[in-house]
Structures are given as structure tokens and as C-alpha cells.
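Duplicate of #3305? Posting structure anyway:
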């Protein structure tokens, strides 16, 4: 199938068992916080507390867990500097830098369609209230 000039023929069906890893990675990338963190790191390294301030609404625990997941999957590097107090910085890897184009494409799509989505939500909610 070809949709919007994208060829999907090589992409395995989501129901296939060999899709497990793909689903796991998509779960990580598409969760509530990972995309925000990746976007915040696009301009360079950030310290933990900078990220916590920049990613509105994230708890310290959730930021820690999300950064660990991104680091485990090779999308973020954690650099600890031997200073007092210790300084830790997080930055995107070369791998995650390749993710920025599709992520920013998604952000642009959302921004372009948020009004339409808002209308659809309102229509749905109105139907549910009847």
C-alpha cells in the first residue's frame, strides 16, 4: 500500500510476532513524555532540573524513568561530570537526531490539525451527552 508517497510494503503487519520489538520501541517513543523530552533536547544538552522545568507537568520520578528508557534504547546519552556537586547532562544521540525530522513533522501535523480535532471532539462529546 502506498499512501502520501510512503511505501508501506516492507513494514510488517502489527499482528505478526516479529513486530514485538517495533511495538516496544514505538511504545517508548510515543508515550506521554518521551517526545517532549526529545524535542527539549534538540537544541543541545540539558541538566535534569532544566528538563524538569521545561517539560511542564512531569514528575521527578517520571522524568527519571523516561530518561532511563531513552538512554537504554540509545536515544539519549547521560554524561556525569566529576564536580561537586555532581553535574549530569542529557543529550540526544546521533540515532535520536534522525528521529527529530519525523517528530517535528508530527508536531507540525498536530498544530495544523488541532482545530479540526477540537471540532471532532466537541461533536463526539455532544453525541455522547444526548
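Output from current build:
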Amino acid at each position: 500500500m502506498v499512501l502520501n508517497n510512503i511505501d508501506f510494503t516492507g513494514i510488517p503487519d502489527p499482528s505478526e510476532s516479529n513486530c514485538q520489538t517495533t511495538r516496544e520501541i514505538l511504545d517508548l517513543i510515543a508515550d506521554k513524555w518521551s517526545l517532549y523530552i526529545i524535542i527539549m533536547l534538540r537544541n543541545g544538552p540539558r541538566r535534569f532540573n532544566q528538563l524538569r522545568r521545561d517539560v511542564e507537568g512531569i514528575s521527578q520520578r517520571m522524568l527519571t524513568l523516561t530518561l532511563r528508557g531513552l538512554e537504554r534504547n540509545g536515544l539519549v546519552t547521560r554524561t556525569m561530570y566529576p564536580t561537586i556537586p555532581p553535574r549530569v547532562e542529557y543529550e540526544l544521540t546521533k540515532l535520536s537526531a534522525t528521529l527529530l525530522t519525523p517528530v517535528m513533522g508530527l508536531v507540525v501535523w498536530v498544530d495544523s490539525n488541532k482545530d479540526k480535532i477540537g471540532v471532532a471532539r466537541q461533536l463526539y462529546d455532544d453525541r455522547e451527552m444526548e
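Confirmed duplicate; merging threads. The chain has one domain: 2-98. The mean pLDDT is 89.
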